[in-house]
UniProtKB/TrEMBL annotation:
The gene is arsC. It comes from Pseudodesulfovibrio nedwellii. CDD domains: LMWP_ArsC. This is Arsenate reductase. Gene3D superfamilies: 3.40.50.2300. SUPFAM superfamilies: Phosphotyrosine protein phosphatases I (SSF52788). It holds the Pfam family LMWPc. Residues 1-138 form the Phosphotyrosine protein phosphatase I domain. Keywords: Arsenical resistance.
Length: 142
């Protein structure tokens, strides 16, 4: 099963989802991530994923057009409202599903205490983990 996690900038939530899926479901699911824009990798996302033993530091923020063209996605999971509203058309039989997660950079905006910032990222990371643990069964019931 091929799954694409789609977000606005492919810097945080979609990257965490891809990382969790490789880690927890790599034997069942081929996971990819991309954005409708690119914003670069979010250092806090990298940090909180490293805390749980998942290294996404080698990932890059990419557009859908940056992915190999021969991949047929079974599911495209939008993880933010902007990506869901701007999700491009997929010519294959991809089923688009929206599973929204809070945006850590938005929630942390204006905060200066790194501990509070990291707690926001940890909460979203853990929310994404809960969803990924339910794969692929959660998709089959959609």
């Amino acid at each position: 099963m091929n799954i694409l996690f789609l977000c606005t900038g492919n810097s945080c939530r979609s990257q965490m989802a891809e990382g969790w899926t490789h880690h927890l479901k790599g034997d069942q699911v081929n996971a990819y991530s991309a954005g409708v824009e690119t914003h670069g990798m979010n250092p806090y996302a990298i940090k909180v994923m490293n805390e749980v033993g998942i290294d996404i530091s080698g990932n890059t923020s990419k557009l859908i057009s940056d992915l190999p063209g021969n991949i047929k996605f079974d599911y495209v999971i939008t993880v933010c409202g902007h990506a869901h509203e701007n999700c491009p058309y997929f010519p294959s039989k991809s089923k688009v599903i929206h599973v929204g997660f809070d945006d850590p950079p938005t929630l942390a905006k204006g905060l200066t205490n790194e501990g509070k910032i990291l707690n926001i990222y940890r909460r979203v990371r853990d929310d994404i983990k809960i969803f990924v643990k339910s794969l692929p069964q959660a998709l089959l019931s959609e």
